Fold:
Amino acid sequence: MTEDLSPAERYAAARQRAVEQATALASFREMYEFGLDPFQIEACQALEAGKGVLVAAPTGSGKTIVGEFAVHLALGQGKKCFYTTPIKALSNQKYADLAKRYGADKVGLLTGDNSVNSDAPVVVMTTEVLRNMLYSGSRSLLNLGYVVMDEVHYLSDRFRGAVWEEVIIHLQESVTLVSLSATVSNAEEFGDWLDTVRGDTEVIVSEHRPVPLFQHVLAGRRMYDLFEEGEGQKKAVNPDLTRMARMEASRSYNPRDRRKGKMVREADRERERRQRSRIWTPGRPEVIERLDAEGLLPAITFIFSRAACEAAVQQCLYAGLRLNDDAARMTVREIVEERTASIPDEDLHVLGYYEWLEGLERGIAAHHAGMLPTFKEVVEELFVRGLVKAVFATETLALGINMPARSVVLEKLVKWNGEQHADITPGEYTQLTGRAGRRGIDVEGHAVVLWQRAMSPEHLAGLAGTRTYPLRSSFKPSYNMAVNLVDQFGRHRSRELLETSFAQFQADKSVVGISRQVQKNEEGLAGYKDSMTCHLGDFEEYARLRRDLKDRETDLAKQGAAQRRVAAAAALEKLKPGDVIHVPTGKFAGLALVLDPGLPPGRANGHRNLDHVDGPRPLVLTAERQVKRLASMDFPVPVEAVERMRIPKSFNARSPQSRRDLASALRTKAGHIVPDRQRKGRAAAADDQEIARLRAELRAHPCHGCDEREDHARWAERYHRLKRDTSQLERRIEGRTNTIARTFDRIVALLTELDYLRGDEVTEHGKRLARLYGELDLLASECLRAGVWEGLSPAELAACVSALVYEARVGDDALAPKLPSGAAKAALGEMVRIWGRLDGLEEDFKISQTEGVGQREPDLGFAWAAYMWANDKGLDEVLREAEMPAGDFVRWCKQVIDVLGQISAAAPREGSTVAKNARKAVDQLLRGVVAYSSVG
Structure:
């Protein structure tokens, strides 16, 4: 092709190649065996041009290449690069990758509980560590050139998302930001915000998956494609699946049908049996065998329950599944024994090591947060090396850990979200199935959903077809954030900084549309006002009098109805079994015998009652032989007994003969009685002075005599409705404008009340709070201030501090937790009392936990376990007493250690034992499984 070019064109092309080869990108590309994708090249070129970048691309597409280029640039320019991740496991993995590529001397790690070579030019860390550095003014920030924020879409997380925004807002302007995100539908909006707060930011969005993903549904013995084969963007749902769902929904046989009087033919039952033989949800071993037979392993099966993940492994072992040959088994055993060599034999037994090893040798494993971190790391390593071929995992595995598979299986499309069982979102579906298809290994990836009763193929297609989801800010100011900001910038500048948050950016953007609507409404109001103008007087005033009169009449009518309901309920409460009444209205109007007055609990006089939320619900026998429980709506007016009857002791409401005999006796006894007609009382409006005054004013108003009065009134009514709607919109605008700043003002007011702040000055108490990070930062500070932890032993202090971090997975635990006795128990009680006082203060200052601001109640559920472990008790005893998996125990211990470190730094140096005992408590907790787990 170059032969076709002129000499001048060939010279220009050579110059262009020379320029490209002189760039940092050219030398970077040589470090990789594969070529870079267009989106990666575009992002790297923007970075080299000095711009910040936001890269939004599917899971597994290679976004991290852009982050690694930032590392390459920093090293080339003699600057530092911080690579941040949302979870410690991902930080550890990234540290290992970068250390392998650039050498361990150039790469460091900081994860709160791990510190390796922290002064290196490249440091991998969790996002919280960088946030804490920014607030403390750490010297490590000197010469910082680049910050990579991996999984930046995590800022949507309602518990931790605010940290990402804090970092983005507070980083120095000279720092170039590299934001790596999953595919989100509002990447441009997020990019606009980054452009506002960080300067020139290039937004690069890629929808392309390097390994195409095929979607399937496994039902019975058959694997169906979710979509029909065909050209075009919009794919149709496989008609076989639609037909199967329809067939299952229309199953004719129901055991209850006979009781409903329906005839069920033998042919229908036979058709039902044939349908059932084709459609069922295959068992877990069956699924793995099927995937193995079709060459779709390795596979990750996502199950939204830790216990179910462990059960799945056991089911596969009991079924005799073996996915590894003898050579692979030997390799697995060697790797496992090497990685777990530091764990004592007695601990291995407690941790279920031998059962776990058996599964690994067969190529099967679980992966969830309840596992010991060392065990999780081994599973990840073996899976990547192809020595574990079936992993049963919870959704935490989808958070960026590099464990791609050929196939991903989803057992169900419903998961527990912490509050209720809810359908997974399109974003979650994309994140989970994004693991399918290994770049450079697989030609295609496969997502398999198991058939479930009442499954909708259209709903599944919607999840699979909606590849994106919106990024929503979860930013909220906290007490620690407030004192740190005021200390650095003063109150006014802090307020301005918070108004630059993505949360406020989104709120302000949403206000634009509402403002436009308000503007339109105001134009409409002006037109309506012209149309209702009356030449005789002020028609707006006349319309207001009419509205006031109507509102007053409506109020009186409601009061009358309420009084009648009260009177009717009071009359029902007087009824007794054997009373004959006339039901005034409803489906069962007419003569009836009271069998049970149906009084609410507490007034039942020994009668057994059902649900009576709405007053008495008498059980009656009608003259037509029906036994029914009536409701208050059947008695709009008071009812009285017109006669009395004895109910035979032998009466059985379920016996037709019994009902017939008693109904006949009822008609004989009271059939001739004509019910009293309810006379209407004088309306309350007739004697109301306010109504009389308004009517008089209406008649005296000049507009009352206008010939076009009713025409004007119609325009006035439209004006009133539109004015009311406009006022609501204006209130919405007011509610969304400056929301973050208003919350900050309330927090500052409370901190001023507690003497943490005095105007722009941060007091000594405030400086202590500035060193305490966490959900219960203010409670920890108040405990230090009140000397609650003075004189406690290290183990007792560990027990108390655990209440600041621990949160039970199941919120409403009925049993009171076991607590250490003596000083620790008293201190924990005092912590709860201080929290109660703070909770009351937050209520006074309108600081609401439902908005994500404020202090939750301390949870004492881990106090006993922390106390025992710090007192050198064995792992077996501690786990048995704590009733929690080893992984959870290690994670909570590490969080307690983290907060103890903060407390030792924040506690008074003189006249206090807390700082010294906090350091001792850290040493006493950091042993055994807690010490040799490298991932927290």
